[in-house]
Each structure stands twice: as C-alpha cells, then as structure tokens.
Amino acid sequence: xxxxxxxxxxxxxxxxxxxxxxxxxxxxxxxxxxxxxxxxxxxxxxxxxxxxxxxxxxxxxxxxxxxxxxxxxxxxxxxxxxxxxxxxxxxxxxxxxxxxxxxxxxxxxxx
Length: 111
Hints:
Layout: E1 5-6, H1 21-45, H2 49-75, E2 81-82, H3 86-97
Antiparallel strand pairs: 1-2
Helix pairs in contact: 1-2
Keywords: Capsid protein, Virion
Region (Disordered): 1-20
Protein name: Spore coat protein
C-alpha cells in the first residue's frame, strides 16, 4: 500500500555538530509538550479556584506556543503527516461511535 505524505518542501539546514535551527525549534517543541502535559496534571489537581485560573491561563499560552512551533516546523518541511485512508477513517469512526452509549451525558454524535 502506498501512503501519501503531506509535507511542505524542506528548508535546508547546515549539517554541523552544532545545533541548527531545526534542532533548536525541535528542542523548544519538546519542552513545550512536556510543559503542557505538566500543566494539565496541575490543573487536574488544583484545589484553589484562583490558582486553577492562573494555571489555566499559563497552560493556554503554553499550548498556543507549542502549536505555533509545530506549525513552524511543518511549514519548513521538518514535519510530515501520513494521509489517512478512507477505509481506516471509517473503521475508526465505527469503532468509536459505538462508545457513545457509555457517555454519562446525552451527547449524541451527529453523522
């Protein structure tokens, strides 16, 4: 099976022992992903309302930064995606749409 890639043309970077732009942005992206996961845990465990709101604001800023870095790497061709096949999408939809009867609230999925 031939899977098609979704990717921009790759921005060339020097191949040297020193960290280049791609390495630096990738390092920042990894850090932002770690921070968003950590803030998510802190939000789940915050017992004080103002602390929760403050953490939520910082979480949102961190998440936006993470998304910006991902988009930058994708634009520069340093990230690629595999195009999903229609059959796999339909299988996933059928698998997860069966779970709706387990939701605690009436949240009917629209087809």
